[in-house]
Structure formats: structure tokens, C-alpha cells
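U., I forgot to send this yesterday:
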Amino acid sequence: MNWIAAATTLVILAATGCSSTGGEDVITVSAASSLTDAFTEIGTDFENQNPGAHVRFNFGSSTTLAAQINAGAPVDVFASASRSAMDRTAEEGATDEADPFAENSLTIVVPRGNPANVRSLADLQRKEVTVVHCIATAPCGQATQQLLAKHGLEVTASSLEPDVRSVLAKITADEADAGIVYRTDAAAENTLIEEVAIPDADTVTNTYFIASTSEAPSAAAQFIDFVSEEEGVRILTRWGFGRP
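Result:
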């Protein structure tokens, strides 16, 4: 994210921090982009079960979200796709103790019809195959590098994206032959893409952590409890997340 985009995001967040507006308790949640579908549903259910509460989401790369929080963005809850991104906010005293709440693993996605005939992770090394995956600083990029190293593969990406949703967008738009995303993201777009499973993908997993920020109100803790308890777990499981 360039400085102009980052500044714009912070201005938007400043207008949507936790507050009481018209009798509503507004909770601002910054969450990894791979949580978009599951957390949107969780937010709706939380609001339905807590009249007067309203959840606003800011989805993006966990590392970008951590930088925003450390820069003073008024966020109440941070849900990160990695421990390292969460640790960056904890080290600055911006977030309280974090708890693991979900796990995810990687898969290969290709456009409908699989025009490049990608059948395995090794096929991504073929020179004629255009590949997209996350940048190394993002949790999805870190997991991708670990997975490729585990298989002894060197893959040159035609594009490095800030988060998994950006990778997925390249594939659904048929702008690349293959991408590496989380399994949950592949499941969310299964009508627009095809998945090429990685047999031992579960050996490289990302654990998701959630924490309230230091100045967050009690409603933030209620939201975190909702995510980690029965209803939230049920929704996360349905969207393909595992338990940590």
C-alpha cells in the first residue's frame, strides 16, 4: 500500500472507530482479508444477538493492518492471519493478549477450464505458466514460501499481491494461469475458479489470532468471545477454517 492509500485508510478508520451513535455501540474490527466472508456473517449474527451493537470491518493484509494500528488507527479488534503480525502490535502496546481461533492452509487455484493444465505444485515452475501469489511480508506469502521450500521448488511469480483476495481476483479475471491462496478463499469462489489440491498442504498452516486493542470498550471483548465460542466456530468451520 502506498502512502496515499494508507493515509486514506487511516482517515476512513478515524471516522469509524468504536463509538456510540444513535444508541448503537459501534465496534471497528480490522481483520485479515481471508476472513472476509466468515467475519461478515459473524458480524451479522453478532448484531442480531446483541441489539444496539454494530460491527464495522476493515479487511486487508495482516501486516498492513498491524501497521495501521501501530500508527494510531482507532481499531477495537484485530484478527490476524499470523502470530508475527499480531506480535508487531503487541510489542507497541497497541493490543492486549491474543488468542488463537482458527487455522488455514494453502491450495492452488486456476481459471475455469484450467487452460495451462496445472495439475500439481511442481507445474508452477513451468516457464509458460503465469503464477501469482502473495508478497513475502504478508502471512499468505510467508506460508507460500514455506510450502515451496518444503517441496524444493523455485517459482517466479508474474505478480506479487498484498493479500489472498488480490491473488484470487487475478484468477477470477483470468489474468494468470495459477495462484496460491488459502483453501477457504478457493471455497468462497468455487463457481468462478477451479482448485488444484496440494496433497500435503496441511503440513504448512497459518494460525489466526484475535485480540482487542488497548483502549477498546467491553463490546470488543464480547465480539471476541462470540468469534471463539459455539456460534463463531460453527461459521468459521462452514467457511473451511480449522480449529487451532
